[in-house]
Amino acid sequence: MDWEPKLETLKGDSKVMRAPTNLGVHVDGKTAVVIDTGLGDDKARALCHILEREDLMPVAIVNTHCHADHCGGNAFISRRTKSEIYAPPLEVCFIEDSELHIRTLFSQAVPPADPSMRLLRAERCRVDRRVTLDETSIAGHNFHVMDLRGHSIGQIGLLSDDKVLYAGDAVFNRSVLEKHPVPFYVDPDETRRSIDRVLSSKAETVVLGHGEPLTMAETRAHASNFRDCIDQTDMQILDLLDQPKTTEEVISTICTQRGLDETLVQLLLAETTIKGHLSSLARKKQLKFWQESHKTYWSR
């Protein structure tokens, strides 16, 4: 199916350009704030063409978090429009240099060259301003900044006065979970808390990072499914660890059971998710762990 870029009005001044990663746009008069910029230049270029046609001037780019599919168009839009880039403080270094984020997935070492890693790379850019949770205005546009950490260490959401919430990857819809059976997040407990924050917010429309905009009722259904997926991972791990197993054995078994694609990037992302669950369960005293023969073992 051909993709035709267009700017869709959700409510009032809150808009979205739907794409594999949605690009949010908030308008105030003739100025616009762009929320996330997609992977690479093509979607960013398309958005710039639309904004120029609508006689709208981007004055700020806000990234909900550091992943390349959300900040990969930063450099293009910033160069073309002179917009300042805003980001959550804990995400800044990874937005400015995506190689730093990639290395966190490989114990800070440089990972081997692999074509699949291109999905994690974004052109370098400079973040001009840090977005804090107490801010109520970004470049003259009113937002309530929400703490939605969990998928990444400092992810935020932006709630407009129109009650439209740009939620980043705080919730994954069913189609995303079908495509990615081990969804990425760094902390399952923070992810659950951020789901709760989304559902208890004043939002009436929710723009997820991926998929069509949702009503709050629709968001609740997808959030319940996502929470079930998170809980199922806990249960799979606990069932698996009636007998001691190494970290690598746990990861391999869960990925195999879920039918994960055999690519380096998918494995590295899944490793982070599953290690997050192991650590969470250990903090809750549901698992114990120890080192033996230079391996980490886990058991109930």
Protein model, in words:
By secondary structure, the protein is of the alpha+beta class. A hairpin with a 5-residue loop joins strand 2 and strand 3. It contains ten helices and 16 strands. It has two domains: 7-231, 4-Layer Sandwich (Metallo-beta-lactamase, Chain A), CATH 3.60.15.10; 240-299, Orthogonal Bundle (Arc Repressor Mutant, subunit A), CATH 1.10.10. The chain has helices at 42-53, 68-71, 74-81, 92-96, 98-104, 174-179, 188-200, 216-240, 247-258, 264-283, and strands spanning 7-11, 14-17, 23-28, 31-35, 57-62, 84-87, 129-130, 137-138, 141-147, 156-160, 164-166, 205-207, 214-215, 245-246, 288-292, 295-299.
* Percent of residues in beta strands: 15-25%
Strand order of the largest sheet: 1-2-3-4-5-6-7
The overall strand count is: 16
Q: Main sheet?
A: 7 strands, mixed
- How many angstroms separate the termini? 48 Å
Oligomer: single chain
Measured on Cα atoms, how large is the radius of gyration? 20 Å
* Structural classification: alpha+beta
Number of domains: 2
The CATH superfamily of the largest domain is identified as Ribonuclease Z/Hydroxyacylglutathione hydrolase-like
Order of SSEs, N→C? EEEEHEHHEHHEEEEEHHEEHEHHEE
Condensed summary:
The chain contains ten helices and 16 strands. The chain is α+β, with helices and mostly antiparallel strands and about 300 residues long.
Task: Fill in the keyword field for this structure.
single chain; 300 residues; alpha+beta; Metallo-beta-lactamase, Chain A; 2 domains; 6-stranded mixed β-sheet; 16 strands; 37% helix; globular
